Amino acid sequence: MRNDALPSGTVKSGAKLLRIVTLLKEHDGLRVSEVAERLDASKGSVHRYLKTLHECGYATKSDGVYRLSLRFLDYGVYRQYRNELYQIARPKVEALAADVDERAWCHVEERGQGVFIHGAIGENVVATDARIGRHVPLHTTSGGKAILAELPDARVEQIIEQRGLSQRTDHTLSSREQLFAELDEIRERGYALNFEESIDGLHAVGAAIVDEEGVRGAISVAGAAHRMPESRCRNEIADRVLAATNEVELNLVHGSDMA
Fold it and tell me: Long-range CB contacts (< 8 A, 24+ apart) of 246-253?
């Protein structure tokens, strides 16, 4: 983010420091000159920011290359374990992955993006670029679309305005009209489908987790298209995903009263 694009009241130096953190993550480490070039900033200024990160324990330095330290892992795990949905959904997601022998995920929405907060794998899973903590466009995943279907139309419009409708494959929903038509279908059948919309060759099924507070997140199953053809997605996988989300919803609402 450019400093001149920041809203009023934002601390520009703080925003710049966070931009440097993001660059170190995106490139798995950079030298002072490389950060300066990407920020169009002076080497002296960048060096002070990187030195601050290093001295405070948030970056490591080896042969002139700065990388994020494991301090961020500590914060990420802390945030994950403090999430009520994660605690309740984790065993359900793991059981679901073992049951269908595919990859299962729990997602949440944060600032208009989807975030994977837990994942589990069966024995024969397809490799994807998804990982815990990754932020993805909501309209490109089954879990994300399931979440969008539970949000008010005004909030969906706000997310589209804020995040756009980026196209990840030839099958990604790329227009507002397509997305809202799809959300209507999801509300009618109770679950979302993803046929190669996020990754070529990948199919997925997702359903939202809803309680009295509204939509809390979603659970999804993803697998190779040849292992999860449309018929399996609409029947076996959808049934398993809906059962898992129902169990999570009951636990969120009733908790220990279910004993």
Answer: 247/92, 248/85, 248/88, 248/89, 248/92, 248/209, 248/219, 249/209, 249/210, 249/211, 251/88, 252/84, 252/85, 252/88, 252/209, 252/211, 252/216, 253/211, 253/212
Global pTM? 0.85
Fold of 76-258: Beta-Lactamase (3.30.450)
Q: Positive or negative, the Cα torsion across 129, 130, 136, 137?
A: positive
Contact in structure between 149 and 195 (CB atoms under 8 Å): no
Q: For residue 127, what pLDDT is reported? A: 63
Q: 3-69 in CATH: which number? A: 1.10.10.10
Q: In the structure, what pLDDT confidence band is assigned to residue 3 with cuts at 50, 70 and 90?
A: very low
